[in-house]
Amino acid sequence: MREIGYDKPLFVQPFDHRGSFKKKFFDIKGDWTIDAAGDEYTPIVDTKTLVYRGLLKAIDMGVAAEHVGILVDSEYGSHIQFDARAKGIPVSTCIEKSGQPVFDFEYGSRWQDHLRFIRPDIVKVLVRYHPEDDALDNREQLTRLKQVSDYVRDQQDLHYMFELLVPAVTDEEKAAGDAYDKEQRYLRMIQSIEEIQDFGVEPDIWKLEGLESAEQAKAVAEVARAGESADGLSRAKVGCILLGRGSDAEQVYAWLSTAAAVPGWIGFAVGRTNFADAVMAYLEGRSGEEEAVEEIATNYKKCVDVWLKAAG
What we know:
- By secondary structure, the protein is α/β, with parallel strands linked by helices.
- Helices cover 50% and strands 13% of the residues.
- The protein has an eight-stranded parallel barrel, surrounded by six helices.
């Protein structure tokens, strides 16, 4: 069993969105399968490929290839996963069922078979978790997430990325509005991380929402790295990365600048902020393919530059 953690720089371009991707860019809502897609499937695959080409362009523009990562789904991006692996780019893939309030496996009981076929470097789960949520739902999620943790810990070349979303749940939090984001969310994040760890779930990488101050970022990273697992392995090398939440670029740059200088924060996973406008302009015919690739590359590289400048 390997040690816990991932402490190398990691700048991820995530485009594993499925339900939201189809709805935003192709106006496809509800349940939808490849068999029912008709002529819709290929444009979705092509659009994901466009985002990937933007990442490759960013490497050509000077982003260090060893720090780059991708996060893409297998449904529309399996070709990208295999190409990235061949190029030595760390590949993350998701195994959660899209759009579910309670975590469940996209591939049911065959999720391990899927990982053995794809052979990613990092397996990612997206989880909505709040200590005040329904106790049975929380326990159901944690039981499934521990299965992933136990499986990953037995693999020498696989890491566990845990995307934690902590929405406002209580009436007081919902009434607080922006104040919840700025003043309260990080405390609930800390509480959630502790509960998840106590259940025996041991991520190598926490993918977390943006924080308002270095003090908040420090407090979150410290709890992510605190103590030991149940079998006595240190969490000292666990890494935190920042997600973009689809926010505007200036807000994302502020979050990046805040986190970059704090020990324990190793990078980011900023997706829609970097590619959404470029993809929409391309699909609507307002820009060409190469223009879209260039814009995505420039936006991604800007995030890297902001991070490296703040990190010193």
